[in-house]
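Cross-check.
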Amino acid sequence: MNRFYRKYRIFGNWVNILLMFTVLLPLLALSYYNHPSPADDYCYIDTVFKFGWLEAMNYYYSGWTGRYFGIFLNHSNPLLFHWVNGFKILPAVLLSGLVFALYSLFRHLTPTLSKMAHFGFAGVVFFLYILKMSSIAEAFYWMAAFVTYTIPNIFTLLWIVLVLRWYRQDTQPAKILLGFLSGFLVFAVIGSSETNLLIMVLLIGAWWAYRLLFHRKVDAFMVAMLLVSAASCYFYFSSPGNQARIGGNPLGGNIPFSVLSSFDKLGTLSYDWVFRTPLIFFSLAWLIVLSRLSAGARNYFSIPVWYAILLFIGVLAAQLFPSYYGVGIEPTARVINCVYFFFLIGWFYVIGVIFHHFRTSKNGQFPFSVARYGVLYAVLILSIGLSFFKSMNVRLVYTDLLKGKAAAFDKEMWERYATIRNTKEDVVYLDPIRSKPLSIFYDDDIKADEGHWWNKCLAGYFGKKTIYLKNPDGDQQ
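Predicted model, tokenized:
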């Protein structure tokens, strides 16, 4: 039986990795066709060209938002160097970074498993993430969005890894380096968005509570992270620009409405993620893997079940809260992406905690026969196949890539740049974008109104007085 299990694990690892590549490779290929979006990407750099780099960041921090790290990244995007091709490289770097962060996390949570198993586990989470995420374009291709959510999501996972590594280090120089890197990640995550700020604050708070309640310990590393988070929160909330984002809706600032709406939304989303994906069957496979680990190898899952579940629900609901409290609206697709990302990671972690607590025997192994393994495999493969072919995201990615929509979009964008540069007049008329690959294109272009913010930013960036968008028939508005 152990021999069969080893074969099952090797085959399963390769299947998991293959699943990841079925969605990762087309996403990497689509990166080649990506372009900066008229929605915000040009505005940041146009402001830099007008006022200078530091003053432009101060303008946004003082007049619009406290997201200081997001402001820094957006005002440093490749357009600063007139490098459009940088927007083709960034999504590939981002996708690779996400896979690496998942791999690193699972490698530290289950150190006795093989590297292939860790890579396969990262593949499963990545595959499930792409299947049901709300917006691929906002997660990986639209820079104004991914610097606010995807990058801090990656940084949060890496911060957890650094915390786990710090407690395993014996040398002081290594601990100092890890402490410095951890502090930077806390500073960066908190300064990216309200959503990620709450995630990081809750994780640090849960870490403190766990160490105090169950270990009666406080160390210098914990104190340092608390101080960094407090300073980062102060820097975030002291921004005068935060007030510009609050108060636009009468429901904004309503705490009871915001709390109830957050949990209601979380319940609806969770049902969809659990019962309309292969998550349950992957969870059964995860239980089998856990059953083969010794109690010592499951050390990072040895926390109280109630504590893990409470933290899991709290982190998810907290991400939805700012949308309702700040402006009284439904969370955007990019926020839902963030919630789903931590839902998947938290789901598998909570299962590990529950199994570790309620293991059925001394070694915790399930009495799975060869036939039962076969049935589980068959059902899992069937559910994966159905979910893959029914996924709107998968269909969108492959359609945009294989039917040439992304390539046509790329061609249109280069023609648009040529039109702007080759027009000697200060007033430019541009054709609407005909091919819109929604897997990489955030559907918000310049408008027919010259006074629209996107028009002004694009015109300013290219040194034109005015840029108009022609109507769909190609006539001037």
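The chain has two domains: 2-400, 411-469. The radius of gyration is 24 Å. Passed to J.P. for a second look.
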